[in-house]
Specification:
- This is Macrolide-transport ATP-binding protein ABC transporter.
- The chain is of the alpha/beta class.
- The chain folds into five domains: 134 residues, P-loop containing nucleotide triphosphate hydrolases (Rossmann fold, 3-Layer(aba) Sandwich); 54 residues, no CATH class; 58 residues, no CATH class; 238 residues, 3-Layer(aba) Sandwich (Rossmann fold), CATH 3.40.50; 71 residues.
- 42% of the residues lie in helices and 21% in strands.
- About 4% of the residues have low confidence.
Amino acid sequence: MAHLLGAEGLHLQYPTKVVFDSVSLGVDDGDRIGIVGRNGDGKSSLLGMLTGAVRPDAGRVTRRSGLRVGALAQADLLDDDHTVGHILVGDQAEHEWAGDPRIRDVVGGLVADIEWNARAGTLSGGQRRRVQLAALLIGEWDVIALDEPTNHLDVEGITWLAEHFKGRWARNTGGLLVVTHDRWFLDEVATATWEVHDGIVEPFDGGYAAYVLQRVERDRVAAAAEAKRQNLMRKELAWLRRGAPARTSKPKFRIDAANALIADVPPIRNTVELAKLATARLGKDVVDLLDVSVSFDGRTVLRDIEWRIGPGERTGILGANGAGKSTLLGLIAGTVTPDSGRVKRGKTVQLGVLDQQSGILAEVEGDLVREVIGRLKAGYVVDGRELTPAQLLERLGFAREQLSNRVSDLSGGQRRRLQLMLTLLAEPNVLILDEPTNDVDTDMLTATEDLLDSWPGTLIVVSHDRYLLERVTDQQYAILDGRLRHLPGGVEEYLRLAAEPRDAPAARTAPEPVADEALSGAELRAVEKEIASIDRSLAKLSDRIAAKHQELADHDQSDHVGLAALTEQLRALEAEVEELESRWLELSDKLS
């Protein structure tokens, strides 16, 4: 493969910190490289040096002659006076640019909902980001460097972007460098991962799943120095092997090595014990949304929402930008009043909200971090151990020396860590996380997920990060055409439903005919009882399928007859799941 660009002996230093010291690396044709690391360790600086936006203090960056490099920085570079159309295609007439399939694909995938003649100055921050990304992708580039491209993209947009990069260049041509905390996106597009830490860049083969395994093996070698990190990553690996076997089948690493590493790791969550604790803290009544509808300025945002939230449920909410997710959270939190219907809350509900505005920090902006945590209780029980607030912050990746910083001087990621800790230490029994991945790195995401594994309460998460949703929630719902819909098939089912033509599912937004379909009380109870039975059966089948994957991994790989038998048993279990899910959907339609 041809060499595209490289770096030799790069050194970068700021007044208080050496960011990189003698870093050498290269990008070849066909490379798709994900860049991960803690916030502040230099990921954006590395990207800047490779694209020419940042000049290193020593060393040099070399490029193949005539190489075309396109970059998306985190800074907003749009001219407020230019229209969206001018930013994307200049002065070309529609018949000129519409003949280019790439331009049509990019426009349809990223900015189809934005007015073509709107001036950039009138757009929201998320719309501006998408226009900037689209303008880059329309161009012809040999290497594309992206800094947090999935920010402000919804699940459909992130899925489209992954597919775009899978087919953008011919096989073994072109180069992609991407800084992102979206681990699903990394697994989909990256053939290699660079971890930036301690002034160096450490390469790993494969996407996020393969990176986790290799990092665990590296940490095992240096166990004394990396004990805390190792234990956390072993748990993450257990999730990848047990919770998402399809994801770990793609990277080419030794399955037996993974099994040896996680042999003594307990299940990610003890769901039975957590449910008992949640019921004890909450009782049976949490929050019920009863035939609720909400409108703004004459436009119906949510219609006929019927949702009974139970103790200990862990639910992810999906939906496009503007679909009504924040409105739904507002109904639960009591900050939004419905136009019709009723919201019923249990008497013992104590709500905690991790919002996008860091509102909980507003009153302590001028305080030192140690002053803030000094006002809290001395100890809190977390995962069976008593921790001080400082220890909990450290568990979330907050360095002890940062305790002397003022809250107003903290970086976005540091503020998010402090905000999460204060929210949890208020000891809510219902926790709402609204886009919790904003301003955080993969290390903090892993630490947050680890912390939530032992949190006993009702959890509701709104996020476009499908990895996080699949990791911390047990069920997903979607807001589609103003209605709340359960997703037995998870994110994949949501993407399928969201891709349906708008006019095809018109019956979903229109009143359902009731003459022939209305259920009697007895019939309704029978349907609900069968759905509950199917839910229990699906949970048991999920455990059996996970065990069968483990059995396959442990089996003698030279015993082809035995492997074939086990594979046939696995396929039978999966077919049973498919049959039950079809029946579940059939029954669910009767209740809608």
